Structures are given as C-alpha cells and as structure tokens.
Amino acid sequence: MRDIVNLRGGGSAFVLDLSGPTPVIVHWGADLGESIPDGVPASPVAHSALDRPPVQELVPQASSGWRGRPALEGHRARGRAFSPALVTTGSRDLGVEGVEITMTDAAAGLVLSLEIQLSPEGMLRLRSTLRNDGDDDFTLQSLSTALPTGLGASEILDLTGRWCREQHPQRQSLRQGTWLREYRHGRTGHDSSLFTAVGTTGFSNRSGSVWATHFGFSGNRVTSVEKTPTGPALIGNAELLGAGEIVLTAGESYETPLTYASYSARGLDGVTDTFHRWLRSRSTHPATARPVVLNTWEAVYFDHKLDSLVELADRAELIGVERFVLDDGWFRHRRTDRAGLGDWYVDEDVWPGGLASLIDAVRARGMQFGLWVEPEMVNEDSDVIRAHPDWISGAGFGRTPVGWRHQQVLDLVNPAAFAYILERLDALLSNNAISYLKWDQNRDLTEMGHTGAPSAHEQTLAAYRLIDELRQAHPEVEIESCSSGGARVDLGILERTERVWASDCNDSLERQTIQRWTEAILPPELVGTHVGPTTSHTTSRTHSLSFRAINAIFGHFGIEWDVRTLGDSELLELSEAVALYKKHRALIHSGVAVHGDLVDPAYLLGGSVAQDGSEALYSFVCVATSFDEIPGRVGFPGLDPDVRYDVTVIFPTATSPYNQRSNVGWIPDGITASGRFLAEVGLPMPILNPEQGVLIHLVSSLEASGL
Ligand code: GLA
Asked: What is the bridge-based pairing of β-strands 499-501 and 478-481?
C-alpha cells in the first residue's frame, strides 16, 4: 500500500496520505510535481477541542472527531451502528490515473470502497460503494463525497433557475455554516446548479483559483458547501435518499453516482476547459457534425397535418436543415396536453397511413427524421391508465400526486409498466426510419413511490435502464434529453444521450445567460440552441434574426419557427445563418470555450478558439443599455500571443446593427494584429443597440494567405 498517493493530471493534483488509520486529503489543487513531502505538518490542538490535531479526512466521520456533515449516515435496527468507524484496510492502483481505497468497520459490518480517478485533462472523479457485511439490514441515509477547497477560498458561485430561466448564477461570500442546496424534484430540476464552485475573492471567467464539482445524477440530490471552525470549506455531493429508500440486506451494496471535480488556477474558463476536454475524450461523445435541426414545436404545436408538415419540410430543405424533428402531438388522443401520454401508438385519425408518409417525405429531402417521446409520463386520460390505474407512481393509500401539466409519472419500477414502455419504444424504432428521439420528461416527481415506499432512486435508475436497453437495441439512434427545457441536464443523463435541451425559452436575450452557464460544464455541441420565432413565445420579446442566429450558432444549431411564413429576405438571412453554422461548427464544436471579463455588464464577449490557436470565432453582444457612450476596447481572450490574426466581422452582413455616426477603424475592412496585441490592447468595439450582436472571425494570417 502506497503511503502517499499523488494523482496528477491537467495541471492539477489530488494527494492522499494513506499512512494513518484513515485516508487524509493532503491537497486538491495545483500540480505539485512528482515529489511530495510526507504530508503537511500537523495543525495545532486548540484549547477545549479534540485531543488531536484536526486533519482533512477523505471520509469525514464522527468516530474521528468530525462534527460537520458526516460522509456516511445510516443505522441498523433501533439505531445500532449509527456511527461508523471505517479504517483503511486496502488500496489498489487503478492505472496511473487512480486509486481504489477500501475502508472497513468490522464491528459495524460495513465496507466502503472509494474509487478516485484524475484524468489527463484534470477531471477528478469519485465514486463510493458501501457493502453491508453484517447479518441484518443496514438502512442508508446518506453517502456523500466531501472535497476540501484550498488557500484563499472565499466565495461561492452556483446556479439556479426555473422553467424558461435555467442556469442563472448566484454568488455569495463563504461564511461559517452550510450553504445547502436540496433538489427534491425526482429529476435534476430547473433550479439545479450544473456546478458548485468555490473560489478566491473575485474569481472570474479568466482569473482566480476555483474548486468546482458536478454531481452526475438525474434524481434527488443534495449539494453543500460547509465551513466549520476546524478546517477549510468542504464541497459535498450526495444522492438525497427517501425514508427507508436504501435498505441494504446482508451482502448488498449501494453505489453512489459519480462526483466530478475540477480545480483551476485560471478562473472559471479553466474549469470549463477540463470538463469540455474530458467530455470530448469519451468514446461515446458525438463524433459526427452536429446536424442543423428543425423542430416542429413552436411551428405547429399540436396541429399535426401531413400537408403542412411536408410544406415545412420543403422549406427546411431549402434553408439547409439536416434533421427534421416531429414534436409532441403524433400519438393517440394527443390533441392537447391533457390526454394521450402513455398511448405510444401513432394516432390513426391524424396519421391514417402512419408516420411513413412524413418520414419518407423528410428523408426524400435529404434530412434525418426525429421524433418526440415522453416515456416516463402518462396522462390519466389515456388508454394505458384506464387499463392500469396502478401504474401511476405515488405515495400509496390510493392517493394520486397533484397533477403537473395534467400528467402523472409512470411507475417504471413496476416490471410490467417498464416492459410495456420498452416494447412500445422498441416497436416505434423498429417499424419507422427514426434516427433521433427527443426524450422529454415534463414534471417533477413529487411523492415518487412504488407500492407505497419512496422510489425516486429506483425510478431514476429504471429510466436510465430504459434508455440503455433501447440504445442497445438501436445503437444508431441519437437521443436528446429534454425536461420541460433544461430540467434534466447532468452528466448522468449525458452518459446515455447526445444532446440536452437547455431551455424552453428561445428568447435569445435570456439564452445568452442560460447558454453561457450551461456551457460552463457542457461543450456547445451537446447543447441544443434554436432560432425561435421573431417574437418569443415565452417572453413576448422581439428580436432581430441576426441576434437569434448569433445565439444559436454557439451550440447545436436548430430552428423552431414556422418557416413557411418567412418572406424572401428572412429566408435568405436564415439560410445565411445556417451556412455560417455549417462553416464554423467544426471550430465551435472542438475549440476552447472562452469568456471575456468585460467590466461593462451591458456587453458580453464569448468565443471558441481552435485548439492549435490558428482560428477563433467570437460573439460580441449588447444585452442592455450602457452608462458609457462607447463600449471602448475589448480584449480577445485565449489566442496564441505569437500568432498574427486577420480579424473581421462576418455576421450580420445584410444590415448594419450599429448605433453610431462613424464606424470603428477596423470595420468593415478588418485588421491584422498579434494575439498578444488583441488580448492586451484589444480592439475598439462598435456601439450596438441592446439585443444586437456581431460575430468576429479571426484566422492566422499565415493560414489566410495559404502559407
Ligand atoms: C416540453 C418541451 C418542449 C416541447 C413540449 C411538447 O415543454 O420542453 O420542447 O417538446 O414539451 O409538449
């Protein structure tokens, strides 16, 4: 057994001392090189305190004197074994990247194994498994990871939201006590934060030290930042278990979801870079160019008519769409959102010839066909629930949970319900040329129960299993995770899907924030972004097509608009945006995501820089009126300082978005300057109206001249 484990990757390190009775975290932060001293010198023992110096245990437990949130909580009958005293009993190398540590409490009959890996990109992943080695049941309350933040940590940043306003940042000072976020939605949740970050004072997009975690799970969860008087702030992540939800019988185990963590010495963009690189390194990461989508929802809603949908497909082909997705409304009884969920048969009245005529028309126009489903839900007004009222999940006593969008949750823990839904989805995919599913999930799982006992845990795993089994049978089908917009965006669901729908809000002003913060963890190729109608259906704001397109280009581009109604100039501008996306998607979907630290909140600068620094695309947008007359100079982050770039505004081209009497010196002809100049001196920016933007393209002069 190694005494010191020094995991290193992507400029960061996670160092453990295994020489004592329990594993101690020596360091999580910057890479320290190969040689590590034997741990850190002991802390003092304070008056009226524990009789030994406090240390940062990998598994904080009361048996070692820890008085904060314990990593493991549970008990046997009548509270026995309530305070485990796990000690290290083994460790095993998991290649260069990781270690597995076993801890045992023989008296309590518990064995905990912890897998810890630090990838070459700097992604730290932790998973624990608890085994009940006793003779009787062990009721598990909570099993969490607790990661310590480092020197200077003083501020907490996480995200929150609601329907149509997901992933908005909130920041606060780190104080004594616990910043606790509990998500009891049964799904990830609209208010769910994609990360919990703790950093040094004023940490920003490009500066400061940041310790950030993400919990890769789509069910109930708890995240915390806890500062006690005895040590650094700890970031905690755990599944939130219901009463008696996990009872381990003799020999049974519980495995936690993965906690992902990243340390950055260069602000949030460093955390983002680690997550993006790691996600892109997965063998399951989408490898093909992300096709331009047309989604029918905000175009026709439930009004499905073959003729109008074929007309829509005609227009889509003209514009350059590559994937046509038929949204909600195609199955039996689904004329409104009050009925039909669960009856996954093509509606014979609306589609007398089945979906084949539309699918054929779509494919004949060179597009893939995608279909909307919501497999985990049912309407009470459906054939399936009329036949099986007991398939609705609930707390028991014959009580049905309060409705949500007139729907209830199908109890997937019930094997018959699971088998029914799997058969239906399998038949749909087997009998139709469908290459894409938009997999929706439109309600919180309140009072989630199976036969009267809590089942959010099992339901989440069953939903995962359903997707996994379907994927196994139809590996060529891509799946999007949608959940009333962005209520199921996490790395658990992304282990089995190719895209998430970030929000039902297609208002591109709102989307600037939603997408910026979704992108903090997820690379843009995984995030669905659509050009919606001129006047947003969810906010009634009206935006220019160019502003909507600029927003959609920095993601997996789509259109969700009745494009049959477009005039010639709009058609032209939309086609131009589609062509622009196609031209630059390889860069955006492989580049380094960068975000400027602009002082003026009226303006935002974000972009993607090619991994070799040879090219970059930035969006500069105005989101509000400014105190300042002119935006002043803006620096371009992330470029290679020694490369000379040709810089031009490439979009919009049709109409000038500027609100000024004379233009800045480098528009429209462009300018050539070094990456160093562009970062340190910057370029004067044109005055934009609020809710306008421009796309700025940079290419290395050598490449531009073909040298
Ligand atoms: C949810 C989704 C939307 C759309 C509707 C259809 O709200 O988030 O994109 O698919 O359901 O009912």
From this structure: parallel
